[in-house]
């Protein structure tokens, strides 16, 4: 029930109900100029189609000072057959976008997923011409695709997705900074001992010491945050877990860390009538611990949260239905956002965000 309600409420759920497409017309769709003089917000945009051909997926770039109804400073439109799923941006502005490629037909369930890949765009690259593309036989196609992406301090790419046999199920594939083409991961974390379960949204984050944080996605029980050390590989248990009633975690939509190692979660509570919230846990938290801060209530205007990200000043950005909300570093409890970003045209934000 938890995952069904989330699918109905969130943007990724809108994609499940109506079909989110990639491509459509060909065309480059512009370029991403890179971070420039100041930090930027990067978002994936999923366009909906009902009964028609897929539409193009975009990456939108905004300054972190954006507020109100504003146009993006740059828009990159992906290839005609690719739906963006997962996004990470490094410090020099290289953008990594997970790509899910769909076939035709499929009936009421929508078109079948036929391939997955990661598209890498250097600043100035166009949507139809990524700088390089990564594919891998280690990623499963039929069971899902790519959930989320993260980068570590060395530029290694972490892909949260559905792994192919023999590690069949949700897990993590790690690729080197120079991976391209049909690449073999340098590490895989997957298997029953990892307790990474489900095929729903499985956000991932990496801290400054390259420890890996990933959520479970069990449709029957509340989610947990699983923490693996920087050398974890294979079918290994997490080094620690954050979960239990005191955490108030139920359904994790987004996962991020600040420079001090504090952990942030965008969360759907177990009470179907309750509003979503943002939870913060102190660095080094483990077990059934209460959050040190909660942002929740009607003043927040949160209604259907997706992923979240932080900037270097500690501001929190969370995807929310058809807009993006920004909360101050010291925001707590029932507080209004300091900025709300929408665009002049009809827009569906996907479930991927990065701030660099």
Net shape: globular
Radius of gyration: 18 Å
How many β-strand stretches? 28
Low-confidence stretches: 1-28
- Could you give the order of the helices and strands? HHEEEEEEEEEEEEEEEEEEEEEEEEEEEE
Number of domains: 1
CATH topology tier name: Neuraminidase
Mean pLDDT: 85
The strand order across the widest sheet is: 5-27-26-25-24
Which band does the percent of strand residues land in? 35-45%
Do you know the CATH architecture?
6 Propeller
C-alpha termini separation: 36 Å
Number of helices: 2
Characterize the main sheet.
5 strands, mixed
Task: Write a structural description.
There is one protein chain. With 356 residues, the protein is mainly β. The strands form 7 sheets. It has a 5-stranded mixed sheet, with no helix packed on it. It is globular and about 45 Å long. A hairpin with a 5-residue loop joins strand 7 and strand 8. The protein has helices spanning 2-9, 11-18, and strands spanning 20-21, 40-45, 47-48, 58-63, 68-69, 74-77, 82-89, 95-102, 113-121, 132-135, 146-151, 157-163, 169-175, 181-182, 187-189, 204-206, 212-215, 225-228, 240-242, 251-257, 263-268, 277-281, 293-295, 305-310, 316-320, 323-327, 339-342, 349-355.
Task: Show the helix and strand layout.
Elements: H1 2-9, H2 11-18, E1 20-21, E2 40-45, E3 47-48, E4 58-63, E5 68-69, E6 74-77, E7 82-89, E8 95-102, E9 113-121, E10 132-135, E11 146-151, E12 157-163, E13 169-175, E14 181-182, E15 187-189, E16 204-206, E17 212-215, E18 225-228, E19 240-242, E20 251-257, E21 263-268, E22 277-281, E23 293-295, E24 305-310, E25 316-320, E26 323-327, E27 339-342, E28 349-355
Helix pairs in contact: 1-2
């Amino acid at each position: 029930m938890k995952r069904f309600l989330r699918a109905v409420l969130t943007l990724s759920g809108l994609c499940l109900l109506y079909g989110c497409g990639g491509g459509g017309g060909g065309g480059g769709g512009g370029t991403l100029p890179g971070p420039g003089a100041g930090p930027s917000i990067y978002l994936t945009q999923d366009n909906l189609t009902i009964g028609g051909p897929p539409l193009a997926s975009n990456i939108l770039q905004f300054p972190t000072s954006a507020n109100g109804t504003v146009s993006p400073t740059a828009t990159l439109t992906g290839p005609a057959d690719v739906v963006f799923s997962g996004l990470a941006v490094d410090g020099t502005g290289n953008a990594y976008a997970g790509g899910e490629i769909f076939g035709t037909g499929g009936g009421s369930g929508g078109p079948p997923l036929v391939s997955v890949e990661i598209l890498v765009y250097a600043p100035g690259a166009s949507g139809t011409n990524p700088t390089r593309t990564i594919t891998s036989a280690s990623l499963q196609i039929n069971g899902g695709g790519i959930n989320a992406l993260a980068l570590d301090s060395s530029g290694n790419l972490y892909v949260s997705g559905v792994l192919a046999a023999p590690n069949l199920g949700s897990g993590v594939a790690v690729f080197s900074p120079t991976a391209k083409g049909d690449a073999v991961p340098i590490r895989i974390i997957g298997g029953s001992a990892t307790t990474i379960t489900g095929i729903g949204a499985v956000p991932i984050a990496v801290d400054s010491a390259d420890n890996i944080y990933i959520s479970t996605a069990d449709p029957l029980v509340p989610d947990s945050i699983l923490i693996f050390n920087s050398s974890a590989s294979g079918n290994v248990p997490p080094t620690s877990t954050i979960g239990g009633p005191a955490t108030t975690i139920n359904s994790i939509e987004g996962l991020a860390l600040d420079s001090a190692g504090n952990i942030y979660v965008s969360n759907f509570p177990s009470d179907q009538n309750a509003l979503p919230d943002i939870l913060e846990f102190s660095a080094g938290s483990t077990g059934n611990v209460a959050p040190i801060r909660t942002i929740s209530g009607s003043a927040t205007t949160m209604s259907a949260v997706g992923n979240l990200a932080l900037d270097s000043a500690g501001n929190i950005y969370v995807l929310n239905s058809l807009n993006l909300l920004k909360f101050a570093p010291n925001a707590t409890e029932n507080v209004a956002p300091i900025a709300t970003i929408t665009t002049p045209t009809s827009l569906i934000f996907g479930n991927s965000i990065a701030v660099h």
